[in-house]
């Protein structure tokens, strides 16, 4: 499993405060975008290529 040192994790402002099914993204990390499950912060981290992440976010904004 990849370590993401000194990551500042954030959740979408649209996820609410109820702790539901949320993804967290690490800010300030060079290279691929680290993504994790907010319910399992000690669990695995998915590293998404920046280009793929940008395309996915753009798709969500258009939905």
Provide a descriptive summary of the structure in words.
- The protein has one helix at 50-62, and strands at residues 8-11, 23-27, 33-37, 46-48.
- With 63 residues, it is α+β, with helices and mostly antiparallel strands.
- It has one domain (8-62).
- Strands 1-2-3-4 form a four-stranded antiparallel β-sheet.
- Strand 2 (23-27) and strand 3 form a beta hairpin.
- It is globular.
- It starts with 7 loop residues before the first strand and ends with a helix.
- The relative contact order is 0.20.
- The model has no long low-confidence stretch (mean pLDDT 83).
Cα(first) to Cα(last) distance is 32 Å
Low-confidence stretches: none
Supply the number of structural domains.
Answer: 1
Mean pLDDT: 83
Task: Assign the structural class, choosing from mainly alpha, mainly beta, alpha/beta, alpha+beta, or little secondary structure.
Answer: alpha+beta
Biggest sheet strand order reads 1-2-3-4
Helix content: 10-25%
How large, in whole angstroms, is the Cα Rg?
12 Å
What does the largest sheet look like? 4 strands, antiparallel
């Amino acid at each position: 499993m990849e370590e993401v040192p000194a990551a500042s994790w954030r959740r979408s402002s649209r996820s609410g405060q109820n702790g539901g099914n949320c993804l967290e993204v690490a800010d300030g990390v060079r290279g691929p975008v680290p993504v994790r499950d907010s319910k399992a912060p000690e669990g695995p981290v998915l590293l998404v290529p920046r280009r793929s992440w940008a395309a996915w976010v753009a798709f969500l904004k258009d939905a």
